[in-house]
Amino acid sequence: MTAIALIEALATLLWSYTALTGTVWALHLRALPKGAHIAAGVELLTHLVPAMIVLVAVVLIGALIGLPSVVAFIAILFPAGCAYGTHMALVEVRDAPSSRRDLPRLALTVFVAAAIVTYRQLI
Questions:
Q1: What keywords are annotated for this sequence in UniProt (predicted)?
Q2: What angle do CA 53, 54, 57 make, to 5 degrees?
Q3: Among 12, 76, 98, 101, which residue carries the largest CB count within 10 Å?
Q4: Is the pTM above the cut of 0.85?
């Protein structure tokens, strides 16, 4: 497996986790009273914005020093920041740091990412 394929597989795993966690977050948001929706959305943004600031800083520093592999960092940092933001927002919405309900989502994440990576390898 080449380095590019490994980065692509890791990014696919992170994007799958982001999508599933975002869906669960939206379902929890739907169960909240209408007045809490804006606060929950702001909490999500407070977790996503710092990750994106780090992404921009890495790109700027990489461009400044001439780092040739900045694109690889972007390919990992962007989905990792989104996964972190949605995970932390979900933890705050449901008021529980971790739960047994996370295990099926993690298993489904690995399954979906493996299916996508396998499909890409076949085509």
A1: Membrane, Transmembrane, Transmembrane helix
A2: 85
A3: 12
A4: yes
